[in-house]
Amino acid sequence: MTASASASDLDDRLTVACAVAREAGAVAREAFRRAPHARARTFKGPQDYVLESDAEVERLIRARLIGAFPRDSFFGEEAGGDFGSDVWIVDPIDGTANFARGIPHFCISIAFVRDLRSEIGVIYHPMADELYAARRGRGATLNGRRMAVSPLGDAARALIEAGWSSRLPNAPYIALVDHLYRAGAQVIRAGSGALGLAYVADGRTEGYCELHMNSWDALAGLLLIEEAGGFVNDFLSHDGLRRGNAVLGCTPALKDLIVAAMNLPDH
Questions:
Q1: Domains of the chain as residue ranges with CATH
Q2: Which of 106, 117, 139, 188 sits at a 20 to 30 Å CA gap from 133?
Q3: For residues 117-127, average pLDDT
């Protein structure tokens, strides 16, 4: 494939991914509005919710993307899939605990990876009608507006989201948050890692970090931050695509602080 053909090919994928994210978001939004949030909730693990809407939305996304690009692979959080050289990585609803409890902070996350490099990232927040999109080398946008990470470099003025993972012990997370607080930062946790990363790309917060995150939650948001001028760690190293990895996206001036707080290898 020539460079020009490859560029056109990725442009087509970005266009389709944005349309699919909006369609999937409409389904998720309607399901959220009709959901009996006060009813007993179903869990598949500690703080890990089962939602019928997850599977419904993932089936729609899979059908649309593979219908448009039948040679591509697809891997979704709910039904799995396979990893080819061209693969879509999808979280149909990131923020399921929020969704299940009637909190309107969740999103659809779609990434396209070619030869172990993220090329497209799309995140759609259906309750706010916010579409975040990036294509490698072309910048990142929110509803068509160009995004840039925050210019703040002073930890004492920074707002950082620290995601928590049930797959790890609590002690490292507590140490991470303590390190950030002692540096003067304000620390939050809002329950959707993908949206947390998108907010960094748009300069709403100065950083998002988590000691372990799955690729379907992380890849789209990390590309958004990278294309918005931020720092991101090498998530795909050590088989991050399949096994997940630590994740960090932040304004460049806060890189050293958060890397130290997470006890990450030098980047």
A1: 3-146 (3.30.540.10), 155-262 (3.40.190.80)
A2: 188
A3: 98
